[in-house]
Write a structure and sequence with these properties.
The protein has about 250 residues and is of the alpha/beta class. The chain has six helices and four strands, in the order αβαβαβαβαα. The radius of gyration is 20 Å and the shape is globular. The relative contact order is 0.17.
């Protein structure tokens, strides 16, 4: 369900039944001449689309822009180096609004710069501030109360910033991990597997020399991209299905 397409009674019902909310976050950044500049946004959006088709969830408006630090290219190549403070302020406002509506299971599906990157720090800072504002309203010493008596027992996991494979079950510590990189084989095949019409592999020849991060792009296999997308979709679907109450009339 797209939040912007829901009527008030649908939103109230979703809140009552603890339906999770998903926010897709990425960037608009040069990923080579062969890929769309929205690659970091389009990949998690493809995962989110697959999840939405399988499990009940509310999809909030996305966060498509974030800081790129002009690492890969210039604005003339489509690079949008979004101010970190702007991302933080906007995300905090969005999370405050979702909290005010009453949602208590909020996920940000982030795909840009990895777990230590500047964008994820902005997103986690926004989430932490909303959590802090919430618990301050409970009075001093609220941690001494039994968790089940709190207005929001799972407050520390209420808002999660996660990645496309955060909830996927790898067979073991030595198992192959989803390849990502920047514009190389991993991201190329993920876009080939979801939006093949946006990829033009022949354009790689226009960039000489190729930067190291594009060296393996030609090795991308669309079927592998589809396999990894399914892997991520299954993990997220299982996570979001947990804890949602049945709709009225089907209990």
């Amino acid at each position: 369900m797209q939040l912007t397409r829901m009527r008030p009674e649908q939103i109230q019902d979703a809140v009552r039944r603890h339906v999770p909310v998903v926010i897709v976050a990425g960037s608009v950044e040069f990923h080579g001449p062969h890929l769309p500049v929205g690659t970091d946004y389009l990949i998690p959006q493809a995962v989110c689309d697959g999840v939405e088709a399988r499990v009940e969830c509310v999809v909030a408006p996305p966060l498509p822009f974030s800081s790129t630090m002009a690492w890969a290219a210039s604005p003339t190549d489509g690079e949008v180096d979004f101010e970190p403070e702007a991302l933080f302020v906007y995300t905090r406002a969005l999370l405050r609004a979702l909290a005010a509506i009453g949602f208590r299971r909020i996920y940000i599906m982030q795909h840009h710069q990895g777990p230590e990157g500047l964008p994820v720090l902005c997103l986690k800072r926004a989430a932490a501030e909303v959590v802090r504002e919430t618990v301050h309203g409970w009075g001093a010493g609220w941690g001494r109360r039994p968790p089940e008596e709190l207005p929001l027992p799972g407050v520390f996991s209420w808002i999660q910033v996660a990645y496309i494979d955060s909830f996927s079950a790898y067979p073991g510590p030595e198992a192959e991990r989803i390849p990502i990189g920047h514009g190389g084989r991993g991201e190329t095949q993920l876009i080939q597997g979801s939006l093949p019409e946006t990829v033009r592999m022949g354009a790689l020849a226009s960039l000489v020399p190729l930067p190291p991060w594009l060296a393996d792009a030609e090795a991308a296999v669309p079927a592998e991209g589809r396999r990894w997308l399914e892997f991520c979709i299954a993990g997220w679907a299982a996570e979001l299905a947990r804890g949602t109450l049945a709709a009225a009339g089907s209990q």
